[in-house]
Amino acid sequence: MLLCSPPQIDHNPLQVRILPLLPFNNEVTIMSIKTFEMKLVKSTKNKHVYSDVSDAPIVPSVYIEKSGLPSTPPEVITVTLEYEVKS
Description:
The chain is mainly beta. 0% of the residues lie in helices and 44% in strands. The chain has strands spanning 20-21, 29-43, 47-51, 61-65, 76-86. Strands 1, 2, 3, 4 and 5 form a five-stranded antiparallel sheet that branches. The radius of gyration is 19 Å and the shape is elongated.
């Protein structure tokens, strides 16, 4: 019997992809991706607060649990918003 380990899959969350999906009804679905940077503006007892400082932010602020980041939080994070656009 031959034993082998399962294949290693790279789950890189920063990978950008735009994939057209062609279903049987000739409707095209495209994944649209928007990426923007957010800056650390404050820390509360249990959360770090990041804000988009652009003129027209899509996501004005994000609250992240302190336990989800290193003890010294990054000053800037990159947020990726991915959604389907059907035509």
